[in-house]
Amino acid sequence: MSDTVQYELPKGKLGLKGPMTRPAPGTLPLRGDLAHIALAESHLVPHYVIPQFYTVGDDPVELKLDANAGSDTLATLASGSTFEVLDHVGDWYWGCVSAKGPSGYVPRDAVTPDAA
């Protein structure tokens, strides 16, 4: 089992605090419909997700900008590294390396869930 981060739920009142610049795709684990729970105090989306921790298999895997093999590669995740899964899209998982990014898609068969 890999060492994983425990994320806390936000405390206090959440709300809009003025205009913000949307980060570039593939940076923070943030989409228009959902975001990593660690971003709840700084970004407004309809849904926040507590990640499920997965481990990259025996081979390194490319983190893709979109859910297809021809998409731009954002990073290469080493064998045995942790990937935080936030959503599944067909044969792909969308998630991140950490709450600070990068975020993107990996094939579902490239990672396995960590033991509870």
UniProtKB/TrEMBL annotation:
What's the protein name? SH3 domain-containing protein
Going by the entry's taxonomy, the superkingdom of the source organism is recorded as Bacteria
Please name the Gene3D superfamilies in this protein's record: SH3 Domains (2.30.30.40)
**Species, as recorded:** Pontixanthobacter aquaemixtae
